[in-house]
Amino acid sequence: MQRRDLIKKLALLPLMGNLGFKETQLPPNLNKAQKNRLIIDTHVETWNFDERFPFKHPENPNLKVSIEAPIENQIKQMADYGLRYGVLINPRYYGWDNSYMANCLKTYPNHFVAHGLLNPEDPKIVENLKYWVKEHGFQGMRFSPIYDPKSTWLNSPEHYPLWKEAEKLGVVFNYYILPHQMPMLEDMAERFPGVKIVVDHAGKPDLKAANGWEEFRKMFALKRFPQVWISNSEPYEMSEIKKYPYKDTLPFYKAIYEEFGPEQLIWGTGYPFPRWELPMDKELEFVDKYCSFYTEHDKDLLMGKNALKIWNFPK
Length: 315
Fold this sequence. Notes:
Low-confidence stretches: 1-27
Largest sheet: 8 strands, parallel
Oligomer: single chain
Structural class: alpha/beta
């Protein structure tokens, strides 16, 4: 089933944020190792239909969204599945306005750290970074050159002041990026080693491209930087077969593991309930059962301990 079709079906379901949670919707299904493991979801995009936080999608200003995925749903899942912390990532729905993430962080300060979005071509980008970090306590920003495949702003001299300020503030940058854009990120990692970098969603390899592996391997040049981590997340987006457990993605996750090692990998999901691809129990099962190349020690690092090196979570 295509995502758009499933979204339409989910739109007919009662929204948890409006009608309350049903215990039967998210049954706990943790094995012993999961119960004893520190689990941190490093990619939580959450949104609601509160009029205080209007959508301003930069590429699609007339976007219509059928379902909510409010922060309260993530709180419920964290309790059900033993997740200790989460990293809030402003979904693109809100554009450059990070107010809903700021509200979530203020409401649940013991559960989350937050990343916002910045317009990469705004001449006031440095001032905007300082505002969200100093005034609202954000620990990072996400950039998405994937939406502009021909862009060159990532490593442009105009962005040097942004990275210098990020080094001063201790800010984390995560990148939603295409394989051919990796050399630009490599350039900036070399120039500004004080900025921690997360590459989202395994670097978005194209499984159907004839030269997919050749392009994918461009990301491996980043392994020499200890301040870079790869998020081995969202197999459903990468997969071409679109059927759990997405076996066509496993060679790519294994290659990342073999190149970067367990110390430079993190785990994240994408959305709280009602996520349309994988419920939380399957997200956890995918790592525990199907990524058989991970040892138990590797999983401890991937699922939580590595994130402690990147963000300052609530004590």
